[in-house]
Design a protein that fits this description.
Elements (H helix, E strand, L loop, with lengths): L1 E5 L11 E7 L9 E5 L9 E5 L2 E5 L1 H11 L15 E4 L1 H4 L5 H7 L3 H7 L2 E5 L1
Parallel strand pairs: 2-4, 3-6, 3-7
Antiparallel strand pairs: 1-2, 1-6, 4-5
Amino acid sequence: IRVLDLQPSLSESRDDPIRGRLRVVHLTEDPGFVALSYVWGRPSRSPRAVYCNDIPISVTKNCWDALWHLRDPILGRGRARNTDGSITLWIDSICINQSDKTEKDSQIPLMNDIYSGARSVCVWL
């Protein structure tokens, strides 16, 4: 599966881009991630972007809001941080290529293993 190492915020501005690094991990190797569960919501007329490996990925406002809060070391406290201050997350809309049907068909059956293998699950309503 892919996970996102969400970088900590550099400022408190909502204009500060959300950035992270996508990487491939194996569930059998206990990769240590937090699974994010959230309400997708309706697609926005002006979607927000998360920069993964410097490539913008459109996400819903609700996903963007959750990530904005989780990347903040104070607002997102209580979540396991990596030594660089990042937090490793699995988020279906980012970690599964939503435009690749073959990938979605192979990843969706893994959802039970993904949530079971997470160190914790964060629910964002």
